Predict the structure.
Amino acid sequence: MSTTNESAPRLHVVVADKRVASHAPASRSTRPPLGQGLRTPLSHRVGEFVIHAMALAAVLAIALIFLFIAKEALPILFDTAAQDEIGGLSALVVPRQWPGYDVAQYVWQPVGEIPKLNVVPLFVGTLKVTLLSMLFAVPLAVGAAVYVSQYASKRSRELLKPAIELLASIPSVVLGFFALMILATFVQGLLGTTYRLNVIVASLGLTLAIAPLVFTISEDALSSVPKDLVHAALALGARKHQVVLRVVLPAALPGIAAAVILGLGRAIGETLVVLMASGNAAVVELFDPTTSARTVTATIAAELGEVTQGDPHWRVLFLLGTLLFVVTFVLNRAGALVIDRLHKRLSGGAA
Amino acid sequence: MRYARADWVLAGLSALCVALLLGTTLLLLGLIVRHGAGQISVEFLTSEPASDLTGGGIFPAIVGTIVLTLLMTITGVPVGIATGIYLAEYAPRGSRIAAVVRAAVQNLAGVPSIVFGLFGLGFFVMFVGRGIDDLVYGPGEPVWGRPAVLWSSLTLAVLTLPVVIVATEEALRTVPHDLRMGAMGLGATKFQTIFRVVLPQASSGILTGVILAISRGAGEVAPIIFTGAANYLPYLPTDLRDMHMHLGYHVFALSTQSPNVDAARPALFGTVLVLLTLTFTLNLAAVLLRNRARAHAMAHA
């Protein structure tokens, strides 16, 4: 019978920090504080300055990424000449009756006499592929996390966890290749779909990309639920499944929510799998998963290489990139906040 | 009885999830090994690819991947380790700046790889590269302001930064405080303590992060599509301004842009096998190293 692992490493850190605080001399003595001798050589101070400066690289990187993608995108919002070229800014989202069409339609067809740059089909594609893959990946990953954290023996846990995480180390181009070459044939044989590459195939490939992430975060959350809770429930006569479903899962729910949020962010941003396996036809069809789909990420990857710099098409692709950045940024912050709160709740309860 | 059955159902269902995940992984690996193993030969590994994307060897792709990850490591890892040192050793407790840096690292890890591609093109190629061209060469053919191995490896260096930072901070935090106190008590400066005492103790943990970063960088394709990767190049990258082939990009190009995918199929499986062998070897090394680092930390705790 096994339940949870040792206390989370986070607790260890807190303890260590407290120890420093108690060692630090509070009184004002003539002795310099530890580690800051009277003669700190210049070279050491230069080294420390370099470390502090380099530490800002990540902040700088985030800022530069946003700035330089938005910089290429923004002119489309203000440059009326460019807007006229694509039939007005509203043509990006509102259906238009283009010459040769019987009714107003959402069309993404960037190459042609009039570039038709309606992004709705791309959003539909991303939405369909993302939601379907979440539908596959979340139950699978959370179920696996429940087994590994609640049922597996300590030894098999130490084998299973890295084995599932090995899946996370497979490059997405390989997962795309697997979906394209093998899953597509399998799905077509099984369901007899008209199109070999479709939303189902892409979603299955994407599932392999996000399930390990959702698994890892969920497993961490599940196994950081204090053992006291589990023992108390068992002592009251609860069966194992009651403990898991009514005590452990609810306690870890914020962590699982965070796993879903972060998994969603990853699924929306994943490029190679959908580029290779979704068929890439920009269709507006909300509910049929056997049609092809063109996602936002795949569109950028497939088209940017062939666009003239500064074209409206170029600007719209960067606009899509900016949007992608903002959406994943918000999802990641939300996921991180939820995890932080979970840790505070669990460690607050234990201390 | 009813309860006992429910126990089995939950255990069985969750075990099934594990089996499905692992089973698919094994299926993927098994099929790739089965179809790819026959393709691996000295000739395949050391000859040039066919110019029409139908197969041939993968030597330039192997060399391109190695050059790319080397440059990425040289440029990115020092910055990542420095940031980790700052977060673990220098940032005061409750520091605002450290909180911002941590949030930035977290977010950087979640930026989609295709967005890194846009960034690499917009910033490195068009801003930095063109900037150098304007300054040094004046108007004319771009020299630095076009896709090149330097730009794709810098893009990947930014992408893998969080992996190195998180691993470094974590590794430094497992080094016992007594060691720092002891070193500083003997008169070492904080800088000396960190570089002579703490860093060597944390080295295997940091190395784990570096290896994971390399493995991640070697497999990413989306960030290098616009910043340096080429469909087909008969020569190897010998200059920072050269474009390069890449194992992952080669897989993408052969399977989506080949005029004859059936002809390219054996070479495709072979390339995937080589790429997977590379990333798995790196990951396995990282896992082993991490276990060693943990055992080491436990022994000293």
Observations:
- The CA atoms of residues 32 and 38 of chain A lie 7 Å apart.
- Residues 1-27 of chain A have pLDDT under 50 and may be disordered.
- Chain A touches chain B through 104 residues (CB under 8 Å).
